Amino acid sequence: MTEQKKPPYGIIAILFTGAFVAIFNQTLLNVALPSIMGDFEIDASTAQWLVTAYMLVNGILIPASAYLIQRYSNRSIFIVAMSLFATGTLLAAVAPVFSVLLIGRMIQASGAALMMPLLMNVMLAAFPVEKRGQAMGVFGLVMVVAPAIGPTLSGFIVEHYSWRVLFWIVLPIAVVPLALGIFKLKNLTFQDRNISLDTGSLILSTLGFGGILYGFSSAGTMGWTDPVVMTTIAVGIVSLIIFIFRQLKLDEPLLQIRIYKYPMFALSSAISVVVSMSMFSAMILMPIYIQSIKGISPINSGLLMLPGALVMGIMSPVTGRLFDRFGAKVLAVPGLLIVVLTTYMFSQLSIDSSFVNIMLIYTLRMFGISMVMMPVMTNGLNTLPMKSYPHGTAINNTLQQVAGAVGSAFLISIMNARTESAAKDLALSGTPPEQILNMAMLEGINFSFFVSTFIALVALLLALFIKKPTRPVTEAEKEIVYKQKQVTE
């Protein structure tokens, strides 16, 4: 009864295509923001809402994904998610004013938010434990390569065409998996029709994660002492604390916080959060260094980061196979050692650092991260009972969103503070005024990377405690596997 059927690769391929376009779209507008600002005559803080709002919607909806995945079929969720995504893409492409573009972007995000948790849960259901590393490695390829290609393609298109072309390119790529999903997709997971949604938890989750994401995302530009930033972060933290206590009391929580009683899941979650914070340092700080200090064009800055993304893409399936054979610790420890060393190397940048040298360090850093993220996450999920998979994936994805926002805001604020103090010191030392800005900003970026080195070091120390989880399959899980096999036949 527990013997696994051959995984339905055709169905998984449809889900992969949908997830790829949803994740690819997340970073597509980063390079295009200046062009959008010019067309709609808006300032940078207004345009930034296209990125912030997308992340906010993700942070709000992902916690609810555990309920949705348990309550509804993967086919229904996929069709609704891709329909929302395609609708938002079309609306954004034809937007006559900025507000319509922002609404379209948020509708896009509401569909994209469900794709990652959905795909991860289908992968966990379709593959036995001993083959999950390989499967999740391929999943990691989508998760890493898609957002990395976005800025490079965006830079090329914006340089030669209108930013609207970005959405017209994404639209057919979204419609194809939607059509395939309607006609070809079958259900792979077992639903619990009796499960209920706790509205209070959903409201607290929205206030908690939404407040924290918005507050930390705004802190980098508005400052930590801004009343809006302080208020939203405070509301977010208080709401999140109440949300956690509420989850511990409910029989059917929105997010099953009790899964943190499994030590390896708790450890993997902590490592993922710390690595996400460190990883975002390069994603945020490198474009500032490359474009503002080195004067390299947006398309070339995208090309500089492309080899790192390709290396991660190539390595994801390889690390998946190695994970199945050797476990997470053998990969995570050397991987994090590479991340620590390369992050420190970035703290030693100079105005004269060569393009090739920067690209090699960045690529090596991405190689290290490829050995960490998916193996550690899969190791933690393998600890959980089958019924807790939706909660595990929802918690991991939510915390990564929050860690990215917190890490970005923290490192940008450190960079700004260091830049300001360095500029004063340089002015007092008699440095020519035309050189002060670049030299001060370089000092700020280097110091932020230095702090990020210690963040990565924390993850390395945590990785020393990783163990390969062993968990017996319960009779209830055997029954679920049996029902899932019947559903797919």
Automatic annotation (TrEMBL):
Pfam families: MFS_1
Keyword Endoplasmic reticulum: no
Membrane topology, as annotated: Multi-pass membrane protein
InterPro entries in UniProt: EmrB-like, MFS, MFS_dom, MFS_trans_sf
Main subcellular location: membrane
Transmembrane segments: 9-29, 49-69, 76-103, 109-129, 136-157, 163-183, 195-216, 228-245, 265-290, 296-314, 326-346, 358-377, 447-466
Protein name, per record: Putative multidrug resistance protein EmrY
Name of the coding gene: emrY_3
